Amino acid sequence: MVVNHQENINAIETRGLTKRFGGQYWIPGFREGSPPQTAVQDLNLTVKLGEVFGFLGPNGAGKSTSINLLLDYVRPTAGFATVLGMDTREHAKAIHDRIGVLPEHLTLWDRLTARKHVEFVAETKTVAVDAGAILARIGLEDAADQPVGEFSTGMTQRLGLGMALVGEPDLLILDEPTAALDPNGVRRLREIVEEEATRGATVFFSSHVLEQVEAVCDRVAILRDGHLVAVDTMEGLRENVGAGETLTILVEDPTDDVRSAVRNVENVADVAMEGQVVEATCTAGRAKVNVINAIRETGTTIRDFDVETVDLESLFAAYAGDRLGSDGEQHEQKKVTAQGGRIESGPEPSSDQV
Amino acid sequence: MSDAQINAGGEAEDTVREPGTLQGRRNWLSVARKEIADAGRSWQLYILTGGFLAILTLGSMSKIERGSRPQPADNQFEMTFREGLQTLAGFIEVLVPLVILIGLHTAIAKERERGSLRVILTLPVSRWDVLAGTALGRAVVIAGTFLAALAVNGLTMWVLYDSMDLLTYGKFAFAVVTLGIVFVGIAVGISAVARTTNRSVSIAIGVFLVVTLMWEKLLGAVDLVTGVQPQFNPMAQDVAPGWRVFLYRIRPGEAWQLVVTDWIAPVMPELGRGENTYYARYTTPGPEPFYLDSWFLAIVLILWCIVPLLVGYWRFREADIG
Asked: Which domain holds residue A54?
């Protein structure tokens, strides 16, 4: 019902979008604030209608600035963006009429009730709303008439999500939506994202936590230092990073023969031996069996083996550099960067989507 | 609200709306309503009302204590009430800018600083809607606050002055609210220019000083530069060129007092211009040009409200809301 099915319209499209901060002149000659700093550089991004799109990057990568540009909070230094086919600068009001946004670091009005907040949104969008139903959907039905000043941050975040859902928007922009949510809230958020996607809405989901994005998103973009470093499906990202399976084998007799035998197996990218442990990085599934067979043929007994797929954190690390969330495992990252360090996605990020 | 719901019913199936359909929508009214609902629960508002009332009442009573001044023979109580209002006007001319600049310089700046402005701007609400809605909402709140305080003060004056004239007091109250709205324009304009409340408070203090205490000092500086010297005349008004008198009279408090005096003059002829009153401090050598008339000064007052709002919008429209 909600989606405009015109072929040439995308939910979000940015071309050469660039934002530099600072270097603005209030009085000619007097620069305000810090020296110029590029927050987003030449961003080319296409989000198709109906997609659930993950927008990933460590804090400070430029995610918020990108979203601020889409919402016309800040104005591009160069390039442009369209949302639902409309220029963000020319048609901000029309765009905002059809999107729902959960902004980062959400702050609401302490003295107004949850119900009033929802009604205010409905009023500006000139839609009829059943505030009770919206609040029930996000689990705030019992707090509907409580002033928001009495809310916990988690409750405030839920209310922000509820406000974004008012009027069945064509596009939902959720900026770090899981922040401050408890596990229940996170689960509810995922369900809502799936429900909204089923309804036909496009969801643009920004996060620095890969698991959140992986669970719900069709495609993912990774931003680093203001540059887009990858746009792909989760599977595609895994393949790009190096297909990511590590076979660890405990052998009885670790000779050089074993090492060279393993190295000669097709689709083995790297071999490491330490004591009796052989570690083979396989770039294709079939290679694992071949590695085991090759070791057997050298006459050594295999005592044990283990397979490890590339985990999400190291995948993220490979693209986004080392500035990870607290639980990023640094040793995993080393393995991946050995495959080629910071990986710029092969084709132009946008070329495969237009 | 009911309009909105009717629209929504009509559009329910047609969700792909053209940008044009937004034209007739008055989302600044939604912002104003939210401002009013929010302010209604604010303790600051009640402190503001109480403070304003207390100072008003003090101002009304001070005239009584000064009662030793010789009164004209015809009706001394009549005079006392009118002089009471005149004293009050002098009070209010400083009090209203103070109260409103203190209370409202944060209007938009605080929302911007806290981040709730970002929430408003996620909605189909333009920056003009934010500015106009905030100004309107605050103006309504200020008008309500002032009228409440003026009503209570009216009772005080009714007790203190035997000859209190309700019509005159009503006009006076209207004039006070008008001055309040002029300064709402100035304060909201400041709040739109400033990125933080730290900045907005500095600008507000600066503006307050300029439009109250510093204006004559600044004119003194102008006199030094231009070499113009108003001629002191102990018997009547000081004489100066038209533009110099104009500069003196366009100060918001001054213009307001002149307009109010002229407006209430039919009731209080003895306070009209030409008398040796505070209002007619300067005059021109010949007949006064049109731009010194009270109707022109009324336009100046309106500009004092609108120009700061437009300057605020000019800066706010292009501002990065980080």
From this structure: 12-232
Q: Please list every residue in chain B whose beta carbon sits closer than 8 Å to the beta carbon of residue A164.
A: 122
Check B8 against A163: CB less than 8 A apart: no
The candidate with the shortest Cα–Cα distance to A73, out of B319, B102, B7, is: B319
- Report the CATH number that the domain containing residue A279 is assigned in CATH: 3.30.70.100
pLDDT of A236: 79
**Higher-scoring residue by pLDDT: B229, A347:** B229
What pLDDT does residue B209 have? 96
**Could A147 and B5 be called an inter-chain contact, meaning their C-beta atoms sit closer than 8 Å?**
no
Quick check: B118 and A111 CB within 8 A?
A: no
Domain boundary among A209, A232, A255: A232
Euclidean distance between CA atoms A338 and A82, whole angstroms: 38
Strand partners, A98: none
pLDDT of residue A215 exceeding 70: yes
Q: Which of B1, B15, B114 to mutate to test the interface with A (most CBs of A within 10 A)?
A: B15
Say whether A106 and B119 touch across the interface (CB within 8 A): yes
Chain A: nearest CA to B42, how far in angstroms?
A: 8
Q: Answer for the pair A203, A174: CB distance below 8 angstroms, yes or no.
A: yes
A265 and A216 assigned to the same domain: no
Same domain, A25 and A144: yes
Residues A190 and A51 in one domain: yes
Element (H, E) at A99: strand A99-102
A87 touches chain B (CB under 8 A): no
- What are the backbone dihedrals phi and psi of residue A217, each rounded to the nearest 5 degrees, phi first? -95, 145
- Residue A73 has phi, psi (to 5 degrees) of -75, -40
The encoded tokens of residue A202 equal: 């496009």
Contacts of B5 in chain A (CB under 8 A): 128
pLDDT classification of B234: cutoffs 50, 70, 90: low
Same domain, A115 and A147: yes
Give chain A's domain count.
2
Please determine, for residue A227, whether its predicted confidence score (pLDDT) is greater than 80: yes
- Quote the minimal CA–CA distance from A121 to chain B in Å: 7
Together in a domain, A272 and A203: no
What are the distances in angstroms from CA A246 to CA A145, A270, B257? 55, 9, 85
Quote the pLDDT of residue A315.
Answer: 66
Which among A232, A259, A293 is the end of a domain? A232
Confidence class of residue A308 from pLDDT cuts 50, 70 and 90?
confident
Task: Give B-chain residues touching A106 at CB under 8 angstroms.
Answer: 115, 119
Residue A84: closest C-alpha in chain B: B16
In a domain, A352, yes or no: no
Instruction: Break chain B into its structural domains and give their ranges.
Output: 26-66+73-317
Query: Is residue A193 located within the same domain as residue A251?
Result: no
The burial of B295, by beta-carbon neighbours within 10 Å (0-12 exposed, 13-18 middle, 19 or more buried), is given as: exposed
pLDDT digits (tens, 9 = 90+) for B67-80: 444 444 444 444 46
Of B9, B37, B124, the CB nearest to A97: B124
Residue A344, in any domain of the structure = no
